[in-house]
Amino acid sequence: MSGLQIEVVRPQDLTPARLARWSALQAAQGPDFDSPFLSPHWARAVERAQGRAAGDDRGVRVAVVRQGEADVAFLPVQVAGLTALPAGAPLCDYQGLVAAPGLEISARDLVAALGVQRLDFCHMLAASQPFAAFGRGSDRSQVVSLAHGYEAYAAERRAAGVGLLKDCDKKRRKVEREAGPVVFTPFSRAGADFDQLVAWKRAQLRATGQFDIFAPGWTQRLFRDLFASRDPDFGGALFTLHIGGRLAAVHLHLRGGGAIHAWMIAHEAEFERYSPGLLLFQDILRWMETTPYHRLDLGTGDYRFKRELSNTQVEVAHGFVGVRSPATLLRQAAYGLRHAAEALPLGGVSQLPAKAMRRMDRLRGLRSA
Asked: From CA 131, how far away is CA 139, in angstroms rounded?
């Protein structure tokens, strides 16, 4: 790490010049880094929502790598005692070191500078080179690129043998005949529709036995702050679909740069046979053609609609990097058990350690703030 220094700061303490430098480095790193989760605005939004006191040694921190007088890399994390997690975990769908091209730095040096024993990650960009050797498993985020507009994209999907958009057109005509006009609203400011989204999502989490991500106060503040944001460069975007005057589907997505990231989606069960969530995605894609946004990131998850809508992918990894310490040894042992179980021909039972790790990491993120 010759000639490099690492400074650790709170996001709110970043100067306008540093914020601009971070954004410029992100823009220079190519399409995989075009995500609002990798912008300085995400780290600052999470810190504001968590509302930690100035002297608290836990919370969101940014490792700023300096070379001489220049900032050459930024890495935001959530410090939680002896370990660190992605900033905003488990709500953060991408992680990575936003760095100057060609920068070489040790991931372990970053961890040591943060004052923790270990950094865990769940959606680390494969293109983030310092962390490439520390991935313990991989996944793909499904992305829709509209570089040439909606019609060119739809034609490309048809040529690939994907009939999902055609099916959406049929369902749209059917629902209009049977239930009334379909009305799409981008960037909705309807507070009642936002509240309904939260209610539907909480009911879904309860029904599937998952932890209520809205239970910690900071997550509710984060969602509401992003929904209320008027910042043209970053914030939440609420999209709604009404059928016959009734709310049928609602999405809250994160926006920034040239990308919209699909984040929280829900729909009215009564309209399920018409696939209102897919109709809303189709409307968003058509609408994007008239905006600065050219990528709709659908995130990870092996869902048919994601596979069929996407025309490109982003490689991500889960894993950890640590210095020699008890915390690192514990994580190594946990992954050892996980990989041993996954190698056994036991069907769903083989996935139990992995599910347990993911559940514990979600709880750690929600409770560490």
From this structure: 15
Which residues does 301 contact at the CB level (< 8 Å), separation at least 6? Answer: 142
Taking Cα atoms as reference points, which of 94, 148, 156 lies closest to residue 121?
94
Give the CA radius of gyration of the chain: 21
Question: Bridge partners of 265?
Answer: 251
Whole-angstrom distance, CA of residue 234 vs CA of residue 41? 7
Supply 88's token pair.
Answer: 């905003």
Confirm if 104 and 134 have CB atoms less than 8 A apart. Answer: no
Buried b (16+ CB within 10 A) or exposed e, 85-119: bbbbbbbbbbbbbbbbeeeebebbbbbebbebbbb
Instruction: List, in order, residues 6 or more apart from 136 with CB less than 8 Å away.
Output: 317, 318, 319, 320, 335, 339
| Site of tokens 């099916």 | 167
C-alpha 246/C-alpha 308 separation (Å) is: 28
CA distance 102 to 129: 10
Determine the Cα–Cα distance for residues 249 and 284; give it in Å rounded to an integer.
12
Q: What is the pLDDT along the chain (369 residues), one digit of tens a residue?
A: 568 999 999 999 999 999 999 999 999 999 999 999 999 999 999 999 998 876 777 899 999 999 999 999 999 999 988 999 999 999 999 999 999 999 999 999 999 999 999 999 999 999 999 999 999 999 999 999 999 999 999 999 999 999 999 999 999 999 999 999 999 999 999 999 999 999 999 999 999 988 899 999 999 999 999 999 999 999 999 999 999 999 999 999 999 999 999 999 999 999 999 999 999 999 999 999 999 999 999 999 999 999 999 999 999 999 999 999 999 999 999 999 888 888 888 888 788 888 888 888 887 877 766
